[in-house]
């Protein structure tokens, strides 16, 4: 029996050594279990609770199937307006970050000296170590009607509202766009650029026809970060947004103020659907297959 017990580990090792798929399944079993139970399970619970209701007298959640929350979403124009505003803000923040990140990442990866490259990368990633609230309140101070920006521009400041929200969110998520785009530019071989110049192409034609198509998957990856993070943000909106309301603010209000968890879950279906559609759109372009 002792000999058999000593052979058991050897047999298991032999079995796994000849079956790479079994090794991979064993290695990923715990992370996949956590993903299915904790992440996907919570989403399923949210989807189910969107069809529940709240007792108007006790405030307790009643686990009875109803379509009232879904009907309310589609019949009340407030939620359609806020949903459209939220998606447009997410798209705007993403486009602003792309416009800033692409030339900056191109300069860092292909133009800057090695020492300057390190310094610039440190400058890009340093804000990630700062507190989210500190950065948001810093922009609140900068954009105040009597703040530093108003002093420099002679009183011309966006104040608190939708423009301030877009500016603050674009700043907060900019590193998440620069880092993947920089990695994309860094993977582009210099020989391709040199070959383009040898064939008579100018700098703009080389960037447009050679570099950007190769970097587009990295841009798509960064845009997923900026788009999804904007959809789910409600803290910065509350700090610099003034009276501006986005979907995340409404969801938070339903949970904290109105104590209506089922309707908050129903509202959460909108950003969930938006990010799923965005991921499918990126997949249709083929960008996600080359990240």
Low-confidence stretches: none
Shape designation: globular
Look at the structure and give the CATH class of the largest domain. Answer: Mainly Alpha
Could you tell me the number of beta strands? 2
CATH superfamily of the largest domain: MetI-like
Number of domains: 2
Q: Average pLDDT value?
A: 85
Task: Report how far the terminal alpha carbons are from each other.
Answer: 52 Å
Placed side by side, the strands forming the largest sheet appear as 1-2
Provide the gyration radius in Å.
25 Å
What share of the residues does DSSP label as strand, in percent? under 5%
Structural class, please? mainly alpha
- Helicity, as a percent range: over 70%
Alpha plus pi helix count: 13
Based on the structure, what is the oligomeric state of the protein chains? single chain
What CATH calls the topology of the largest domain is: MetI-like fold
Major beta sheet, specifics?
2 strands, antiparallel
By CATH, the architecture of the largest domain is named Orthogonal Bundle
Q: Give me the strand/helix succession.
A: HHEEHHHHHHHHHHH
Give the SSE map:
Blueprint: H1 2-17, H2 20-49, E1 53-54, E2 61-62, H3 68-75, H4 77-111, H5 114-125, H6 132-142, H7 148-153, H8 162-187, H9 190-198, H10 203-231, H11 235-240, H12 247-256, H13 261-284
Antiparallel strand pairs: 1-2
Helix pairs in contact: 4-8, 4-10, 8-10, 9-10, 10-13, 12-13
